[in-house]
Amino acid sequence: MKTIDIGILGLGTVGSGVVKILQDNAQKITDITGCKLNVKTVVVRDVTAKRNVDLTGIELTDDFTKLVTDDDIKIVVEVMGTVETARSYIKQLLNAKKHVVTANKDLIAQHGPELSELAKQNHCDLFYEASVAGGIPILRTIVNSFAADQVESVLGIVNGTTNFILTQMTQNGLSYAQALKLAQEKGFAEADPTNDVKGKDAAYKMIILTQFAFGKDITVDDVKLEGIDGVQLADINEAAQLGYTIKLLGIAKLIDDKLDVSVGPVLVPSSRPLAAIQNENNAVLVTGKAVGETMFYGPGAGELPTANSVLSDIIAVTKDIVLETTGSRFNGYVKNVALAPASDVIYPYYLSLVLPDKPGQMLKLTEIMAKQKASFNVIKQTGESQGTARISLVTHTMTEAQLNAIKAELKEMPEMQLLAAYKVLEG
Ligand SMILES: NC(=O)C1=CN([C@@H]2O[C@H](COP(=O)(O)OP(=O)(O)OC[C@H]3O[C@@H](n4cnc5c(N)ncnc54)[C@H](OP(=O)(O)O)[C@@H]3O)[C@@H](O)[C@H]2O)C=CC1
Ligand SMILES: N[C@@H](CC=O)C(=O)O
User: Fold this and answer.
1) Using CA atoms, how far apart are residues 328 and 140, in angstroms rounded to an integer?
2) pLDDT of residue 382
3) CATH code of the domain occupying 2-134+303-323
4) Which pLDDT band holds residue 384 (cuts at 50, 70, 90)?
5) Ligand 2 contact, 134 CB (< 6 A)
6) Domain edges within the chain
7) If we measure between CA atoms, which residue out of 418, 409, 421 comes closest to residue 355?
8) Residue 2 near residue 36 (C-beta atoms within 8 A)
9) Ligand 2: distance of its center to the CA of 330 in Å?
10) Ligand 2 pocket check: which of 106, 161, 282 to mutate, most ligand atoms within 8 Å of Cβ?
11) How confident is the model at residue 333 (pLDDT cuts 50, 70, 90)?
12) pLDDT tens, position by position, 85-103
Protein backbone atom coordinates (compact mmCIF):
# COMPACT_ATOMS: atom_id res chain seq x y z
CA MET A 1 0.00 0.00 0.00
CA LYS A 2 1.18 3.51 -0.84
CA THR A 3 2.27 5.62 2.16
CA ILE A 4 2.05 9.39 1.87
CA ASP A 5 4.18 11.34 4.32
CA ILE A 6 2.77 14.57 5.66
CA GLY A 7 4.48 17.56 7.26
CA ILE A 8 2.63 19.91 9.60
CA LEU A 9 3.58 23.50 10.24
CA GLY A 10 2.13 24.48 13.64
CA LEU A 11 0.84 22.34 16.50
CA GLY A 12 -1.54 24.70 18.30
CA THR A 13 -5.34 24.41 18.38
CA VAL A 14 -5.82 23.30 14.77
CA GLY A 15 -2.54 21.40 14.29
CA SER A 16 -3.24 19.26 17.36
CA GLY A 17 -6.72 18.49 16.01
CA VAL A 18 -5.25 17.40 12.67
CA VAL A 19 -2.86 14.95 14.35
CA LYS A 20 -5.66 13.58 16.56
CA ILE A 21 -8.11 12.97 13.69
CA LEU A 22 -5.41 11.40 11.52
CA GLN A 23 -4.57 9.03 14.39
CA ASP A 24 -8.15 8.28 15.46
CA ASN A 25 -9.56 7.70 11.96
CA ALA A 26 -6.50 6.22 10.24
CA GLN A 27 -8.25 3.05 9.06
CA LYS A 28 -11.25 4.86 7.56
CA ILE A 29 -8.97 7.30 5.75
CA THR A 30 -6.95 4.41 4.34
CA ASP A 31 -10.12 2.59 3.24
CA ILE A 32 -11.29 5.71 1.39
CA THR A 33 -8.02 6.81 -0.21
CA GLY A 34 -6.23 3.49 -0.59
CA CYS A 35 -3.19 5.16 1.04
CA LYS A 36 -1.66 5.26 4.49
CA LEU A 37 -1.26 8.85 5.63
CA ASN A 38 1.72 9.24 7.94
CA VAL A 39 2.59 12.40 9.86
CA LYS A 40 6.38 12.43 9.57
CA THR A 41 7.47 15.88 10.75
CA VAL A 42 5.87 18.69 12.74
CA VAL A 43 7.44 22.16 12.85
CA VAL A 44 6.78 24.45 15.82
CA ARG A 45 8.40 27.51 17.39
CA ASP A 46 9.18 25.93 20.75
CA VAL A 47 10.13 22.24 20.73
CA THR A 48 10.25 22.15 24.54
CA ALA A 49 6.61 23.22 25.05
CA LYS A 50 4.19 20.60 26.43
CA ARG A 51 1.92 19.10 23.71
CA ASN A 52 -1.49 17.49 24.21
CA VAL A 53 -1.14 14.98 21.37
CA ASP A 54 0.66 11.66 21.00
CA LEU A 55 3.83 12.39 19.01
CA THR A 56 5.19 8.83 19.01
CA GLY A 57 7.06 8.27 15.73
CA ILE A 58 6.74 11.95 14.71
CA GLU A 59 9.74 14.25 14.49
CA LEU A 60 9.13 17.58 16.29
CA THR A 61 11.45 20.33 15.11
CA ASP A 62 11.80 24.09 14.85
CA ASP A 63 13.62 23.77 11.53
CA PHE A 64 11.18 24.61 8.74
CA THR A 65 13.66 23.65 5.97
CA LYS A 66 13.20 19.97 6.89
CA LEU A 67 9.75 20.13 5.27
CA VAL A 68 11.19 21.60 2.08
CA THR A 69 14.14 19.25 1.70
CA ASP A 70 12.54 15.94 2.70
CA ASP A 71 11.65 14.20 -0.57
CA ASP A 72 9.31 11.77 1.20
CA ILE A 73 6.98 14.55 2.38
CA LYS A 74 4.35 15.13 -0.30
CA ILE A 75 1.75 17.20 1.59
CA VAL A 76 2.35 20.04 4.06
CA VAL A 77 -0.38 21.39 6.31
CA GLU A 78 0.16 25.04 7.29
CA VAL A 79 -1.67 25.78 10.54
CA MET A 80 0.69 28.22 12.16
CA GLY A 81 -0.93 31.52 11.16
CA THR A 82 0.94 34.77 10.26
CA VAL A 83 0.95 36.32 6.80
CA GLU A 84 4.46 37.08 5.57
CA THR A 85 6.21 34.10 7.19
CA ALA A 86 3.50 31.70 6.06
CA ARG A 87 3.55 33.21 2.56
CA SER A 88 7.30 32.77 2.27
CA TYR A 89 7.14 29.20 3.61
CA ILE A 90 4.28 28.18 1.31
CA LYS A 91 6.09 29.61 -1.71
CA GLN A 92 9.19 27.57 -0.83
CA LEU A 93 7.04 24.47 -0.34
CA LEU A 94 5.19 24.86 -3.64
CA ASN A 95 8.45 25.47 -5.48
CA ALA A 96 9.70 22.23 -3.89
CA LYS A 97 6.58 20.50 -5.38
CA LYS A 98 4.81 19.95 -2.05
CA HIS A 99 1.02 20.08 -2.02
CA VAL A 100 -0.22 22.54 0.57
CA VAL A 101 -3.30 22.61 2.78
CA THR A 102 -3.84 25.72 4.90
CA ALA A 103 -6.44 27.17 7.29
CA ASN A 104 -4.92 30.63 7.02
CA LYS A 105 -7.63 33.05 5.82
CA ASP A 106 -5.50 36.15 6.45
CA LEU A 107 -2.95 34.77 4.01
CA ILE A 108 -5.38 33.47 1.39
CA ALA A 109 -7.49 36.64 1.44
CA GLN A 110 -4.41 38.76 0.83
CA HIS A 111 -2.21 36.52 -1.33
CA GLY A 112 -4.53 33.77 -2.58
CA PRO A 113 -4.26 34.60 -6.31
CA GLU A 114 -0.44 34.69 -6.20
CA LEU A 115 -0.19 31.40 -4.30
CA SER A 116 -2.83 29.66 -6.45
CA GLU A 117 -0.91 30.65 -9.57
CA LEU A 118 2.34 29.35 -8.10
CA ALA A 119 0.65 26.07 -7.12
CA LYS A 120 -0.67 25.67 -10.66
CA GLN A 121 2.75 26.34 -12.19
CA ASN A 122 4.22 23.62 -9.96
CA HIS A 123 1.34 21.17 -10.64
CA CYS A 124 0.56 21.24 -6.93
CA ASP A 125 -2.73 21.39 -5.06
CA LEU A 126 -3.39 24.33 -2.73
CA PHE A 127 -6.57 23.83 -0.69
CA TYR A 128 -7.98 25.92 2.16
CA GLU A 129 -11.45 24.66 3.11
CA ALA A 130 -10.86 25.43 6.82
CA SER A 131 -10.11 29.08 6.12
CA VAL A 132 -13.82 29.96 5.92
CA ALA A 133 -16.38 29.02 8.57
CA GLY A 134 -14.16 26.45 10.34
CA GLY A 135 -16.02 23.15 10.28
CA ILE A 136 -18.60 24.02 7.60
CA PRO A 137 -17.60 22.57 4.20
CA ILE A 138 -18.69 25.70 2.36
CA LEU A 139 -15.94 26.31 -0.21
CA ARG A 140 -16.01 22.89 -1.85
CA THR A 141 -19.83 23.06 -1.75
CA ILE A 142 -19.80 26.31 -3.73
CA VAL A 143 -17.23 24.90 -6.20
CA ASN A 144 -19.12 21.64 -6.77
CA SER A 145 -22.77 22.15 -5.98
CA PHE A 146 -23.20 25.70 -7.30
CA ALA A 147 -21.05 25.16 -10.40
CA ALA A 148 -24.01 25.36 -12.75
CA ASP A 149 -26.04 27.92 -10.81
CA GLN A 150 -25.64 31.70 -10.65
CA VAL A 151 -25.02 32.79 -7.10
CA GLU A 152 -26.94 35.95 -6.23
CA SER A 153 -25.79 36.37 -2.64
CA VAL A 154 -23.64 34.81 0.07
CA LEU A 155 -24.29 36.05 3.56
CA GLY A 156 -23.91 34.87 7.07
CA ILE A 157 -22.14 34.57 10.37
CA VAL A 158 -18.55 33.72 9.52
CA ASN A 159 -16.73 34.62 12.73
CA GLY A 160 -17.18 32.34 15.73
CA THR A 161 -15.55 34.67 18.26
CA THR A 162 -17.88 37.62 17.64
CA ASN A 163 -20.96 35.40 17.50
CA PHE A 164 -19.86 33.87 20.80
CA ILE A 165 -19.41 37.33 22.35
CA LEU A 166 -22.77 38.65 21.08
CA THR A 167 -24.55 35.47 22.24
CA GLN A 168 -23.02 35.66 25.70
CA MET A 169 -23.90 39.36 26.00
CA THR A 170 -27.47 38.74 24.79
CA GLN A 171 -28.27 35.61 26.76
CA ASN A 172 -26.11 35.71 29.87
CA GLY A 173 -25.58 39.44 30.31
CA LEU A 174 -21.79 38.96 30.19
CA SER A 175 -19.77 42.09 29.57
CA TYR A 176 -17.95 42.37 26.26
CA ALA A 177 -14.57 41.84 28.01
CA GLN A 178 -15.73 38.75 29.92
CA ALA A 179 -17.15 37.15 26.77
CA LEU A 180 -13.99 37.85 24.76
CA LYS A 181 -11.80 36.29 27.48
CA LEU A 182 -13.95 33.15 27.41
CA ALA A 183 -13.69 32.94 23.60
CA GLN A 184 -9.90 33.16 23.87
CA GLU A 185 -9.81 30.42 26.52
CA LYS A 186 -11.88 28.16 24.27
CA GLY A 187 -9.44 28.64 21.35
CA PHE A 188 -11.90 30.37 18.96
CA ALA A 189 -10.28 33.79 18.95
CA GLU A 190 -7.11 34.51 16.99
CA ALA A 191 -3.87 34.92 19.00
CA ASP A 192 -4.48 38.67 18.65
CA PRO A 193 -8.30 39.00 18.69
CA THR A 194 -8.31 42.51 17.14
CA ASN A 195 -9.12 41.09 13.70
CA ASP A 196 -12.03 39.11 15.16
CA VAL A 197 -13.74 41.96 17.02
CA LYS A 198 -13.02 44.62 14.39
CA GLY A 199 -14.60 42.44 11.69
CA LYS A 200 -11.40 41.94 9.70
CA ASP A 201 -11.37 38.16 10.15
CA ALA A 202 -14.92 38.05 8.77
CA ALA A 203 -13.86 40.39 5.94
CA TYR A 204 -11.05 38.00 4.98
CA LYS A 205 -13.54 35.15 4.86
CA MET A 206 -15.93 37.24 2.75
CA ILE A 207 -13.07 37.97 0.32
CA ILE A 208 -12.56 34.22 -0.13
CA LEU A 209 -16.31 33.54 -0.37
CA THR A 210 -16.66 36.34 -2.94
CA GLN A 211 -13.93 34.76 -5.06
CA PHE A 212 -15.65 31.37 -4.92
CA ALA A 213 -19.23 32.56 -5.40
CA PHE A 214 -18.73 35.38 -7.92
CA GLY A 215 -15.28 34.65 -9.40
CA LYS A 216 -14.05 38.10 -8.39
CA ASP A 217 -10.82 38.90 -6.52
CA ILE A 218 -11.40 41.78 -4.12
CA THR A 219 -9.25 43.29 -1.38
CA VAL A 220 -10.09 44.27 2.18
CA ASP A 221 -10.44 47.89 0.99
CA ASP A 222 -13.42 46.78 -1.13
CA VAL A 223 -15.26 45.48 1.95
CA LYS A 224 -17.32 47.99 3.95
CA LEU A 225 -16.19 47.04 7.40
CA GLU A 226 -17.38 47.58 10.97
CA GLY A 227 -16.67 45.44 14.04
CA ILE A 228 -18.69 44.62 17.14
CA ASP A 229 -16.58 46.67 19.54
CA GLY A 230 -19.10 49.54 19.35
CA VAL A 231 -22.17 47.36 20.03
CA GLN A 232 -23.68 48.25 23.40
CA LEU A 233 -25.95 46.19 25.61
CA ALA A 234 -28.55 48.94 25.14
CA ASP A 235 -28.57 48.25 21.37
CA ILE A 236 -28.88 44.50 21.94
CA ASN A 237 -31.80 45.03 24.32
CA GLU A 238 -33.49 47.60 22.11
CA ALA A 239 -33.13 45.35 19.06
CA ALA A 240 -34.67 42.48 21.05
CA GLN A 241 -37.67 44.65 21.96
CA LEU A 242 -38.15 45.50 18.30
CA GLY A 243 -38.02 41.77 17.40
CA TYR A 244 -34.43 41.61 16.18
CA THR A 245 -31.16 39.94 17.19
CA ILE A 246 -27.86 41.69 16.49
CA LYS A 247 -25.36 39.53 14.58
CA LEU A 248 -22.08 40.32 12.87
CA LEU A 249 -22.91 39.46 9.26
CA GLY A 250 -20.81 39.27 6.16
CA ILE A 251 -22.88 40.07 3.08
CA ALA A 252 -21.76 39.71 -0.53
CA LYS A 253 -24.51 40.26 -3.06
CA LEU A 254 -25.14 41.20 -6.64
CA ILE A 255 -27.19 44.34 -7.20
CA ASP A 256 -28.03 44.72 -10.90
CA ASP A 257 -24.93 42.68 -11.81
CA LYS A 258 -22.70 44.78 -9.55
CA LEU A 259 -21.21 43.45 -6.35
CA ASP A 260 -21.56 44.83 -2.82
CA VAL A 261 -19.56 43.31 0.04
CA SER A 262 -19.86 44.36 3.68
CA VAL A 263 -19.20 43.14 7.22
CA GLY A 264 -20.89 44.71 10.21
CA PRO A 265 -23.47 44.37 12.97
CA VAL A 266 -26.89 43.73 11.44
CA LEU A 267 -30.35 43.51 13.02
CA VAL A 268 -31.70 40.10 12.00
CA PRO A 269 -35.43 39.40 12.54
CA SER A 270 -35.49 37.08 15.56
CA SER A 271 -37.84 34.74 13.69
CA ARG A 272 -35.20 33.94 11.05
CA PRO A 273 -33.01 30.84 11.52
CA LEU A 274 -29.91 33.06 11.24
CA ALA A 275 -30.89 34.82 14.47
CA ALA A 276 -30.84 31.49 16.31
CA ILE A 277 -27.19 30.71 15.50
CA GLN A 278 -25.43 30.74 18.83
CA ASN A 279 -21.96 30.94 20.32
CA GLU A 280 -19.06 29.91 18.06
CA ASN A 281 -21.38 28.44 15.44
CA ASN A 282 -21.42 29.89 11.95
CA ALA A 283 -24.08 29.85 9.25
CA VAL A 284 -23.70 30.72 5.59
CA LEU A 285 -26.68 31.36 3.33
CA VAL A 286 -26.01 30.93 -0.37
CA THR A 287 -28.77 32.04 -2.72
CA GLY A 288 -28.60 30.75 -6.28
CA LYS A 289 -30.80 31.82 -9.15
CA ALA A 290 -31.87 28.23 -9.77
CA VAL A 291 -31.80 26.69 -6.31
CA GLY A 292 -33.04 29.64 -4.23
CA GLU A 293 -31.87 30.09 -0.63
CA THR A 294 -29.73 27.40 1.01
CA MET A 295 -28.24 27.49 4.50
CA PHE A 296 -25.13 25.77 5.84
CA TYR A 297 -24.69 25.62 9.60
CA GLY A 298 -21.99 24.36 11.94
CA PRO A 299 -19.08 25.15 14.23
CA GLY A 300 -17.06 28.01 12.81
CA ALA A 301 -13.96 27.49 14.91
CA GLY A 302 -12.32 25.15 17.40
CA GLU A 303 -9.85 22.30 17.37
CA LEU A 304 -11.66 19.31 15.88
CA PRO A 305 -14.23 21.07 13.63
CA THR A 306 -11.49 23.09 11.93
CA ALA A 307 -9.18 20.08 11.75
CA ASN A 308 -11.97 18.10 10.09
CA SER A 309 -12.05 20.62 7.24
CA VAL A 310 -8.26 20.41 6.97
CA LEU A 311 -8.59 16.63 6.74
CA SER A 312 -11.11 16.92 3.90
CA ASP A 313 -8.46 18.87 1.98
CA ILE A 314 -5.74 16.33 2.80
CA ILE A 315 -7.97 13.55 1.49
CA ALA A 316 -8.76 15.55 -1.66
CA VAL A 317 -5.03 16.02 -2.30
CA THR A 318 -4.38 12.32 -1.65
CA LYS A 319 -7.02 11.35 -4.20
CA ASP A 320 -5.47 13.77 -6.72
CA ILE A 321 -2.02 12.26 -6.09
CA VAL A 322 -3.37 8.74 -6.66
CA LEU A 323 -5.21 9.79 -9.84
CA GLU A 324 -2.30 12.03 -10.97
CA THR A 325 -4.65 15.00 -11.28
CA THR A 326 -2.94 17.49 -9.00
CA GLY A 327 -2.49 21.13 -9.97
CA SER A 328 -6.06 22.30 -10.60
CA ARG A 329 -7.11 25.48 -8.83
CA PHE A 330 -9.36 25.06 -5.80
CA ASN A 331 -11.77 27.42 -7.54
CA GLY A 332 -11.34 28.03 -11.24
CA TYR A 333 -14.25 30.49 -11.67
CA VAL A 334 -13.12 33.97 -12.74
CA LYS A 335 -15.42 36.88 -13.67
CA ASN A 336 -14.90 40.59 -13.86
CA VAL A 337 -17.72 42.12 -11.81
CA ALA A 338 -17.80 45.83 -10.93
CA LEU A 339 -18.48 47.01 -7.39
CA ALA A 340 -21.90 48.59 -6.76
CA PRO A 341 -21.99 52.34 -6.05
CA ALA A 342 -23.44 53.53 -2.69
CA SER A 343 -26.48 54.90 -4.55
CA ASP A 344 -27.49 51.32 -5.52
CA VAL A 345 -27.13 49.69 -2.09
CA ILE A 346 -30.48 49.73 -0.27
CA TYR A 347 -31.38 48.66 3.28
CA PRO A 348 -33.50 49.82 6.20
CA TYR A 349 -31.23 51.00 9.04
CA TYR A 350 -31.30 50.95 12.83
CA LEU A 351 -29.98 54.24 14.19
CA SER A 352 -29.14 54.97 17.80
CA LEU A 353 -28.42 58.58 18.83
CA VAL A 354 -27.87 60.78 21.85
CA LEU A 355 -29.64 64.17 21.64
CA PRO A 356 -30.01 67.08 24.07
CA ASP A 357 -33.10 66.37 26.18
CA LYS A 358 -34.97 69.53 25.18
CA PRO A 359 -37.83 70.45 22.84
CA GLY A 360 -37.23 70.63 19.09
CA GLN A 361 -34.41 68.08 18.88
CA MET A 362 -36.50 65.32 17.33
CA LEU A 363 -37.75 67.84 14.80
CA LYS A 364 -34.17 68.74 13.88
CA LEU A 365 -33.37 65.07 13.36
CA THR A 366 -36.49 64.56 11.27
CA GLU A 367 -35.51 67.55 9.12
CA ILE A 368 -32.00 66.16 8.54
CA MET A 369 -33.53 62.90 7.40
CA ALA A 370 -36.24 64.58 5.33
CA LYS A 371 -33.56 66.58 3.50
CA GLN A 372 -32.20 63.23 2.30
CA LYS A 373 -35.74 62.02 1.54
CA ALA A 374 -35.37 59.43 4.31
CA SER A 375 -38.01 58.53 6.87
CA PHE A 376 -38.50 56.12 9.74
CA ASN A 377 -41.26 53.84 10.96
CA VAL A 378 -40.26 53.27 14.61
CA ILE A 379 -38.74 55.82 16.98
CA LYS A 380 -38.30 55.44 20.73
CA GLN A 381 -36.56 57.12 23.60
CA THR A 382 -34.46 54.35 25.13
CA GLY A 383 -32.67 56.20 27.92
CA GLU A 384 -31.78 59.54 29.46
CA SER A 385 -28.92 60.93 31.49
CA GLN A 386 -27.56 64.35 32.42
CA GLY A 387 -29.69 66.43 30.09
CA THR A 388 -29.46 64.03 27.14
CA ALA A 389 -31.87 61.50 25.71
CA ARG A 390 -30.89 58.32 23.91
CA ILE A 391 -33.19 57.44 21.04
CA SER A 392 -33.39 54.52 18.65
CA LEU A 393 -35.15 54.38 15.33
CA VAL A 394 -35.61 52.07 12.37
CA THR A 395 -35.69 53.77 8.99
CA HIS A 396 -37.56 52.82 5.87
CA THR A 397 -35.30 51.47 3.14
CA MET A 398 -32.80 54.00 1.89
CA THR A 399 -29.58 53.96 -0.07
CA GLU A 400 -26.16 53.86 1.49
CA ALA A 401 -25.56 57.23 -0.18
CA GLN A 402 -28.52 58.72 1.74
CA LEU A 403 -27.22 57.21 4.99
CA ASN A 404 -23.74 58.61 4.36
CA ALA A 405 -25.22 62.09 3.78
CA ILE A 406 -27.21 61.86 7.04
CA LYS A 407 -24.09 60.75 8.91
CA ALA A 408 -22.11 63.65 7.44
CA GLU A 409 -24.76 66.15 8.49
CA LEU A 410 -24.97 64.74 12.02
CA LYS A 411 -21.18 65.07 12.31
CA GLU A 412 -21.60 68.81 11.85
CA MET A 413 -23.93 68.95 14.88
CA PRO A 414 -21.78 68.34 17.97
CA GLU A 415 -24.82 68.24 20.25
CA MET A 416 -26.13 65.15 18.41
CA GLN A 417 -24.11 61.96 18.64
CA LEU A 418 -24.76 59.01 16.32
CA LEU A 419 -23.87 55.89 18.31
CA ALA A 420 -24.86 53.21 15.83
CA ALA A 421 -26.09 52.84 12.26
CA TYR A 422 -26.67 49.16 11.54
CA LYS A 423 -28.34 47.48 8.58
CA VAL A 424 -31.66 45.76 9.21
CA LEU A 425 -32.32 42.49 7.41
CA GLU A 426 -35.85 42.35 6.07
CA GLY A 427 -38.35 39.51 6.46
N1 LIG B 1 -8.40 28.23 16.09
C2 LIG B 1 -9.41 28.10 15.24
O3 LIG B 1 -10.54 27.76 15.62
C4 LIG B 1 -9.20 28.36 13.79
C5 LIG B 1 -7.98 28.75 13.29
N6 LIG B 1 -7.80 28.94 11.95
C7 LIG B 1 -6.50 29.31 11.42
O8 LIG B 1 -5.62 28.23 11.63
C9 LIG B 1 -4.30 28.73 11.85
C10 LIG B 1 -3.78 28.19 13.17
O11 LIG B 1 -4.60 28.64 14.22
P12 LIG B 1 -4.45 28.06 15.71
O13 LIG B 1 -4.23 26.61 15.66
O14 LIG B 1 -5.62 28.59 16.44
O15 LIG B 1 -3.13 28.81 16.18
P16 LIG B 1 -2.28 28.56 17.52
O17 LIG B 1 -1.78 29.88 17.94
O18 LIG B 1 -3.06 27.73 18.49
O19 LIG B 1 -1.06 27.66 17.01
C20 LIG B 1 -0.04 28.15 16.17
C21 LIG B 1 1.03 27.08 16.04
O22 LIG B 1 1.96 27.50 15.06
C23 LIG B 1 3.28 27.48 15.59
N24 LIG B 1 4.02 28.60 15.02
C25 LIG B 1 3.69 29.90 15.04
N26 LIG B 1 4.61 30.64 14.38
C27 LIG B 1 5.53 29.76 13.94
C28 LIG B 1 6.72 29.89 13.20
N29 LIG B 1 7.16 31.07 12.78
N30 LIG B 1 7.43 28.76 12.91
C31 LIG B 1 6.99 27.55 13.34
N32 LIG B 1 5.86 27.37 14.04
C33 LIG B 1 5.15 28.46 14.33
C34 LIG B 1 3.13 27.58 17.09
O35 LIG B 1 4.25 26.97 17.71
P36 LIG B 1 4.39 26.85 19.31
O37 LIG B 1 3.30 25.90 19.72
O38 LIG B 1 5.75 26.30 19.53
O39 LIG B 1 4.18 28.24 19.83
C40 LIG B 1 1.83 26.82 17.31
O41 LIG B 1 2.08 25.44 17.46
C42 LIG B 1 -4.40 30.25 11.77
O43 LIG B 1 -4.12 30.65 10.46
C44 LIG B 1 -5.87 30.51 12.09
O45 LIG B 1 -6.34 31.70 11.54
C46 LIG B 1 -8.83 28.77 11.06
C47 LIG B 1 -10.06 28.37 11.48
C48 LIG B 1 -10.35 28.18 12.89
N1 LIG C 1 -11.04 33.45 15.05
C2 LIG C 1 -11.84 32.78 14.09
C3 LIG C 1 -11.41 31.36 13.99
C4 LIG C 1 -11.86 30.74 12.76
O5 LIG C 1 -11.64 31.18 11.66
C6 LIG C 1 -13.31 32.83 14.49
O7 LIG C 1 -13.57 33.20 15.64
O8 LIG C 1 -14.17 32.54 13.67
Assistant:
1) 13
2) 80
3) 3.40.50.720
4) confident
5) yes
6) 2-134+303-323, 141-299, 343-424
7) 418
8) yes
9) 21
10) 161
11) very high
12) 999 999 999 999 999 999 9
